[in-house]
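Predict the 3D structure for this chain.
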Amino acid sequence: MRLTFLGATGTVTGSKTLVETPNTKVLVDCGMFQGFKQLRLRNWKRDRSLAASVDAVVLTHAHLDHCGRVPLLVQDGFTGPIYCTPATAELLRVMLLDAAHLQEEDARRAARRGYSRHTSPQPLFTTEDAEKALLLVHQVQWDAPWQIGDIEATLVPAGHMLGASGVRLSHEGKAVFFSGDLGRPGDPLMNAPRPFQGAETLVIESTYGNRIHPEEDQLEVLEEVVNRVCGRGGVLMIPAFAVGRSQTILHLLATLRLDGRIADVPVFLNSPMAIRATEIFLRHPEAHRLTPAQCDAMWDDSTYVRTAEESKRLNEQSGPMILIAGSGMATGGRILHHLKSFAPSAANGLLLVGYQAGGTRGRALDDGEEAVKIHGHYVPVRAERFNMHSLSGHADWREIVSWLKGAPAPQRVLINHGEPAAADMLRKHLAEELSWDSEVAEFQTPYEL
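Done. Predicted structure below.
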């Protein structure tokens, strides 16, 4: 087999790896680049010959950095099957249609207000493109092997988010295993990832390859933030990924309220995508660890904001209140309008609850930038800032090493999905902790296995 990394090298976005045998070509993930402009520009580069030659796509999960360019692949001529778990398939419909809608909306706004350098701004892909891609989706269960040409494929639970999977591809008795985004053993919502069972080649993510998540009581930290901001009548803004972090925050807030640890302040989930994702979450009890009672409490504890008109009215309200909205890295979505309204006031608060990739507004906010650019204008940020790194859905380096322990050493380990410092540090940790040699994958470089 041959692997070629077409994304997620030197960055945590754009996951896309081409797997080739003499007779078969498979893409593992087909994700969108986010963050720095030079990365985002890659989304617009087309490879129609690739789209025409690929036999199938296997998706590890439904985050846009792993599935967001599937509509472009279809637009370029791909007509093969797209394989994923049932939960991922449901989320994929939500994620792709919402992404298309936001891009169409942003293009119209940019044209109307004139802040694009293009005379006729266009979305990366349209709702029609997303719908065509969704027609190609085939659902497969965990631990149920199937054939793609001369490759046998199997999905296994990876934690991280609803439906997330590791991917095992076997050819002529040799296997390559893709970790996908690896979840955490103590995640408040998700089950722990299936321990690595071994393979000749391992492709491992490294988002937190140079970090250890803080050992903090998540309920205690959130309790303190909510009481601090809402206690002074402020608005607490929480940019959250629609799938995963939004549900985690809802669950933790419901738990705090039931225990009487926070005041009965209104909580608004202002994200149609997160609302739909929460509904899907409740339909898949096999894929998470919450009890039915905890699911009911999570659902009943918040007000769900579905329309643009309702969202706009929130910006005219005063605190105390909690606003949860996408996107998680503040790259788009309704959180931008809340930031414009509430970030300039020191009475309010901003809580970041997930990884913030370089070049995103979320990273700028996390780094303490005094102003961020939104819709063509700089918005001062005086709101008090907080960060709960412990809520990340990615394993840190110690958790990655623990996940790998006990498995036979692969013949080759390739590290992807990490910024350069994180990827290289994971390489060192694998050498020191497991005595495994590994290498950091390079963009568009073929690796013969």
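The chain has 15 helices and 22 strands.
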